[in-house]
Amino acid sequence: MFSVQPKRLLRSSAFRLALLYMALVGVSAVVLLAFVYYSTASYMLRQADETIEAEISGLSERYQLTGLAGLTALIQERVGRQPSGSSIYLLADPQLTPIVGNLNRWPRVEPDEDGWLDFELGAFEGETPHWARAKPFRLFGDFRLLVGRDMNELQAIRATIARTMGWGLALTALLALFGGVLVSRSRIRRISVMHEAIGGVMAGDLTRRIPEDTTGDDLGALTDKLNQMLDELEKLVEGVRRVSDNIAHDLRTPLARLRNRLELLRREEQRPLVEQAIDDADGLLSTFKALMRIARIEAGQHRPPLEKVELSSLVDDVVDLYRPLIEEAGKELTVKTTSAISVRGDRDLLFQALSNLIDNALKYTPAGGHVEISLADSDGRIKLAVADDGPGIPQEEREKVFQRFYRIDASRSTPGAGLGLSLVAAVAELHRADIRLEDNQPGLRVILSLPKA
To answer: May I ask the CATH class of domain 307-451?
Structure first.
């Protein structure tokens, strides 16, 4: 089973798409609930206004028929019948002094353009303030009649709808987020399977394939295409490998036969020419060996065992091998190492890589020059450096020298096939190391940075 890391989940495209859907659904829910909210509130407000206007019409007719005494009696009857009801009545004299009703004073608010009064009910009666709506009416004799409704029920419904909107939106977001996580986890697991299979192919196992996906969706189609591509890649690599092996075998055999015959033909009077021919054959055989070794390393066939390699000891062994050659050439060698520095890898390959670096430095260092080998622990990495005071490598050529058979113009007359740094680069990649070329002022410094054991 594959574990899905939270950071990877949050960065996945499926999760971001789920968040987008969540936002769209959330906006749709808000719009729908807002429509329900305003539709319900508007309907209830219209109903209340129509009820108030109907009561005003009825009370004004009673006033015309029975006068002030009849209107007063009717208001007292309605207030007495429903003392805690939602209806509001107030009959006042021309000075707005209350005569009868369930309000103890005339509201101190100005009417709107349609003549309606919106005010707080209960603010001056010791109750919890809430919204009331009423409409004043002028009677004959300059008496004032105020008829309204307590809108506490409408306020409660509005609050209920608002809370419902909030909870609905939160629930929608939670469900959408949960669905997004489920979808994202499923897709990330499937992508992780692809990632692991492709990583295995990159590590050199060309037989790795992505498990078949029977869902029939876009990832399933992508899995089929990737497997087809890997099949073709394996065929091509195997074809190239067979051709390379055949070429190496076909050329190595006659070269070895040539060398054996030259050994038989070695006579005193022909010795110089024969020695040159043998050296040429040895050089060709070394080139083929280096090519085959680089090819195996890059193809992942040569996997270093996870063994601890003491680099200071390895450096000493390589220096012991090259010190006589350096001194014989009239050059100076300095070694700066630190004990107890270890890495995990293949000791033979690391020995070969360091040998190639020293060989290059020795080859391009002039007589009386200086070669320095240093080993240090820096910033959690092991830095192995070989420096010389030769001509160096121009900045624009430093990336190219790691290519096989590439040689800069100034060194074409120097013996060699241009494979030394290619082998070093292959060994570095196999050990997850970085390789860097720097100016030694004068000369070149090659730094191999390896992970600590």
So the answer is: alpha beta
